[in-house]
Amino acid sequence: MSLDYLNPDALFSDPYPVFARLRQEAPVHFYEGTHEFLVTRYDDCRAVGSNDKVFGPAATEGRPEFRVMGTPNVLTMSGESHQNLRKGIDAIVDQPHVRGYVDQLTRPVVQRFLDELKPKGEANLTTELFEPISVRCIGDALGFTDTPLENLYEWFYAMADGLALGAGAPFPDPQAVWDRLDRTNADINKHFGALYEACLAKPRPQAITNHIIYGGMADGKVRSFEELLPTMRVIFLGGFQEPGHAAANAAAGLLADEGQRNAMLEAPEDLAMKAFDEGLRWIAPIGVTPRVASEDFELNGVRIPAGSTVAIVMASANRDESRFDNPDKFDMFRKKKPHLTFGFRPHFCSGHFLSRAMGEIIMTEVFKQLPNIRLDPEKEVVASGWRFRGVKELHAKWDA
User: Fold this and answer.
1) Which of 68, 131, 235, 328 has the fewest CB atoms within 10 Å, measured from its CB?
2) pLDDT per residue over 157-173, tens digit each?
3) Helices (H), ranges, the chain
4) How far is CA 127 from the centre of its chain?
5) Is 393 left (phi over 0), alpha (psi -120 to 50) or beta?
6) What single DSSP character describes residue 36?
7) Domain 8-397 is in which class?
């Protein structure tokens, strides 16, 4: 069955009306555009995401994730190898460790960018503040302290465009996207190769990458460069993107609502986490996670054959009317209920503590240090994407 409202243009410009109709009319639907079953209701997404015995990681060669990041990676692995890799990653991004280093990691970077922007009185907050803070901080946390911000940005955007192209984004020159990705991968290999060798020569316990190399391995053993490269690409893409776009999405919701904006300006330290977490629900930075059915399965009356790819659409689940009141409204004061933005175990996002802790700092300082911050009434707020979505143009003014 083909649905005329389910098409790439609608999904990339604003997927939420599409998701709303799917939840009502076709909550489990095979989408020819990406060759996968879209699961859009909250309870159904939970049912698929929590059933890792039937719905395992997607590692199909034909999928865009394979072309962009390579496999096996932390998202496509399962069993003992995945558990051991997660031991290395999680060892340095659990809540106690994050609390110990997040201020030193984040506040100086936030302050540097705010100091540059304050005299200007206006900016695109996404591209001039939230994105560069996110990319720089996560790059530093990984150990890429000597890698220029411009390089890290290019890694993020080249991979994001590759995934978008694979999901049907209308690029005028698709080959240029893949050529850019090839150049990016060569640059990643260069910089990650240098960091990898440096960690082998002298372990760097403060760097997340160091823990990925050594963590969960037998004494004297390390993961090889080739073994780690696909997982590092996953971390670059998700890690660079999520804190910055979540902050931009939250700021867009706040600034569009005078009451919430004023409340945030009056008590940023008290409300920053509420705002950031509501931004994660309202516009999930990573809106889809794929799975593959290992056996035939029926969901909501739809038969999903073994071997099929199933897209858990967390972005849709987070706006399910049966779960959240008035779900299309940004409301940081809504009754707190868990959302699905960070995915499902055993592949629940490793960086969720770090992302939230960074987000709280970013939101607090922006609303403390940019007096009377408000939307620029002459410029439109623009968001795009559906598998990865963020407010890309968030033009604001403040009293300089």
Assistant:
1) 328
2) 899 888 888 777 778 89
3) 8-13, 16-25, 42-49, 64-69, 79-93, 95-117, 125, 131-142, 149-166, 174-201, 208-214, 225-255, 258-266, 268-282, 314-317, 352-369
4) 16
5) beta
6) E
7) mainly alpha
